[in-house]
Structure formats: structure tokens, C-alpha cells
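pinning this so it doesn't scroll away 📌
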Amino acid sequence: MVKALLKHEKKNAFVNIILCNDATQRELNKNWRKLDKVTDVLSFAWNEPALLGEIYIAEGQVKRQAPMYGCTYYKELKRVLVHGLLHLCGYGHHDKAERKVMRQKEIFYFNELWQKF
């Protein structure tokens, strides 16, 4: 799944994916983004030849928000993974135009590439 997205985005590097608890995610969010709260996914770009970056996913947060989006834990886990990968590929959501592009990419990858997994 990850390889398909990275190949489509013309990225030829590894990504570390770390599933962590809420406390770890909150601490990372506090230290790096100055936000003292749990978030579902954090991406840290390394931009090295062999390592694009790392994605940290808070399992507890994903489990709690899955019902809010009307989906299973596994489907929500895939959604936040796509989101994190897109950040590592250079996409953001700081303004309306960026949010639109990122959302279109999320929908494309989730619906076109990842439904078979």
C-alpha cells in the first residue's frame, strides 16, 4: 500500500511507520508543534536519500475517531496513514488551496489504490 502511493508520487525511499500510544503522541505534538493534545498522525520528514521520513500514528486516537467518521478502525488507520504519507510527499493543509489539493489526493489514494488492501 505504502509503496504504491510513494511510487505514484515518484518517491523512492523508505518510510518508518510507528504505532504509538496517546501519551507518546501527545508528547511529540507538544514538543514539535507546541500543541499539548493528542493528534491522530504526525509526520517527520527526513528527506534523506534512503529515508523519506517517519509517521507516528496514535492507535488510541484512531480507535476513538473511527466511529466519529462512521468507519472501522482499520479504515481510519489507512486514512491517517495516507494523510501522513502525503505530508512526507510535500503536501500540506495550511490554507484553503492546499487543503483542497491534499483532500483530493487523500480521496484518490484511498479510493483508487487502497480499497483493494
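📌 and the second one:
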Amino acid sequence: MAAESKPRIAIVDDDALIVESFADEFSDEFLITGFTSPVKALDASQLQQMEVVVADYRMPELDGIRFLAGMKQRRPNLTRILFTAYADLDCLSRAINEAEIFHYIPKDSLGRPGKHSEMANIILRGVDLTTLHEERDELLRKLTQQTESLREENEKLNRQRPRLLDSRCFSDLKGDSRVLQEVIRRGREAAQHDFPVLIYGETGTGKEILSRAIHFEGKRKDYPFVAINCGAMQKDLITSELMGYAKGAFTGASENRRGVLEVTHNGTVFLDEIGDMPSDAQAHLLRFLESGEIRPVGSAVTKQVDVRIVAATNRHLERELGAGRFREDLYYRLSSGIELTLPPLRERLEDLPVLIAHLLQYENRGTMLGISPEALEVLESQPFPGNIRELTGMLRKAVTEAVLSGANMLLPSHFFMLNAVRAAHPGTDSWKTTANQAKIADIRRALNNHKTITAAAAHLGLTREGLSRLMSSLGVRNPQEK
């Protein structure tokens, strides 16, 4: 073996004859560097290139366990072996706990017949361990660098995100139906003016997406867009959140704080679920809409700000007026601007293929080819009370089900865990049985209609192995097998 390709081993023993004998014993397999002083060896530059260090236990300057423990601190990946004639249980326990040694070699093995290969193999395994640890650390170092690079790139993309939204705008509202296109047309018109906008729509129809599109296609696109969910905030905090507050205005107000309307000067504030806004906050909002002025809570000073208001609700505000839950003057001020109504998904089911294709791009990460016509029929029969948000959840669950079964296309069986089945069996898990029954029926139909299991799998959008696993889990036998 060429000298430059031999593993490099350090032997540390206060007895120079032992060091010399060790070097002679293993000169064919290893490149040996000897030290008779453990104190000097600890800081020797040569040890940085070693792949294994072997140390005697009893040495006057520093015992072998303390020396190896010091090496563990200086170079943790270097494999450490104890080499002594005085090993006992206490000695080995200390060596393992303090120095984390890899192995122990009895000193009387040196030069004995039949012991050479045993000792050499222990050292070679130590070399492999050092290599493995250093390769692991190098991979971790590269992974850390890549993670940091991805983090920086993600921060960059997040800074660019508003501009990316600018470029898409109304195209984020997916669908070609006449009713949606009319909303988009009127939304584009609203973007070119500065009137207040009131958006009606059920939960999950895309009211915030529409409000962002109006902002980013309008003249205020270079200024902030801030969304506030009035239904999600504590009712006694909405006024101070919008208007800001002065120091000492209430317990905990230790300093002046600007409100959302002031911070968003020249931009747009989106007030989602405005029907849930408490009456005192409604009064402050009305004053702002009429005068453009805000007065922070606890302050006597008014401020002039220029902010466009886009509000949205899933309630019938006229009914809220009659119940005394919404101010009549605020309602007329908002409705005197531009009113838009986003249709529920059940009223534009012709948009399902476009929506599904768009959502699958983000949910399946390239593992799904699409959705079968039969599965599309299943979705078209759903009432979708949660609208697009509910559709997104359905697809996410169905994609998971399909991927786990090895499918590359969404089938009806992947949707039987959804609301329609659950509604038919409230309070039970029988929908799971229904799902399995549907899968079994699909599989048996495919097997009966095709000559081979491979062809049946292709029909179901599965690999042959994926179909076999699914059949095994469901207890389905191939009728073509005798």
C-alpha cells in the first residue's frame, strides 16, 4: 500500500519502546506517528490529520483517559482507542463515560501471535468511524448553508410578494362563469376610483382576494394594504387598533401608538366581517369616512389621513339594521359607494374544473395528473357551504389519500371521506366503511373489465404495485387468479 494512501494513526505512550514496537507492528497497514508526551500530543498539529488516536492508560504527565477526553474536546470526530495493560471495570467505565472511547485494546496483545489482525481490524473500524463522522459533519455543514440560502431567498421572495400579487391581481379569482366575470369587470372599475367598496359573499368565496385585487390594480398599489378581521378581534380592541391610542389612555397603554388607519396612509384597509364590528367602533369609522379624520383613543388631537376602505361581510346588513346591530348611517355611507357580491361556489359549478386545476398545482406538488370525470361529478354534487376554502380542504385530503394509495389521478373513492358521506352518518365513523366499499367496487369493476392487473391499475390511475398493495389492505382478490 502506498504511504500516502495509508490511514494515519497516532500512538501515545510514555514508553518509547512501546511506541517503536507499535509502529513496527503496523507499518504495513498504517502511517504511524508516535508521541511519548500526552501533554505535547494534545496540541500537536499532526493530530489534526490523524484518523485514529491510540493512547496508553497510565502515563505520569496525564493519564490516557484524561488525554483522550481532551482530544474529544479538540477534535470530536477523531476515533479514540484505549491501549493499556491495567484495564479493569472502573477504568473502562471512566474511559467510556469521560472520553467516549470507541474500543479497548489490551497492551499485551502487541507482538503476540494471532493478535495482529484482530488489533488491525479494530483500528481499521476506527478509521471508518472517523470518516463517517466527518462526512456526516460535512453534509450537515452543506445542509446548513443551503438552509440559510433558502431562508435568505424566502425573505427576498416575501419582500417581493406584494409586487408578485400586483402582477396577478384579478387573475387570482379563478373561473370563466358569467357571474364571476361580471364581478371581476365591476371590480376592475372599482379599482380605478376611490369610492368605498362593500363586498358581500359567503365564507370562503374569496372576498379578501377581491379586495387585494382592487387595491393592487388601483392608484394606491404602491402603498400599504392591511386586512383586519373584525370578527376575530376582541370587540373592545377594534377601536384602538383602527384609531390608535395615546399614552395612559387605558391600563397597559404605556406609550403612544399609531392605529392601522394612520399607518396605512395613502393605502387601503380591508375590514372583513364588518357586520361583527361593535357599535363604538362603527361610530369612529363613520366619522373617518365622512371627514377623513381620526382621533386616537385618549387623545384630544385629531389627525387627517387618506385611506380607502374596502369592507366585506357574509351577513345581510339590512337585517342587522332591523335588529339594531349595525348603524344605519354607516350602512348608507358604505353602500353609497360600490357594492359587489361574490357568488357562492354552488352557483358557479361550471368553474370547478378551472379551480381544481389551479388548486392541484399547489396541493399535489407534481404527483397528480388530474381528476377523473367521475370524481368531478362527485364534487359537483357537493353543496360547498364553505365554498372555495372547503374545496381546497377536500382536494388536500383527496390528494393525500391518492398519493398514499399510489394513484396519479383523483378518483371518486378518494372523496368518500367528505361532507356528504359524513352528513349521511352523523356522529359515527361509518363514512370510512363507505369509502372502503367504494374503493373495493372500483377495483373489482376494473379487474373484471381488463385482462391484466397492470391494465386495471392503469385504468384506476395506479401503478401495478400500488394496486396490489391497495388490494391487499382491502382484502380484494384478483378474480383472474385460480
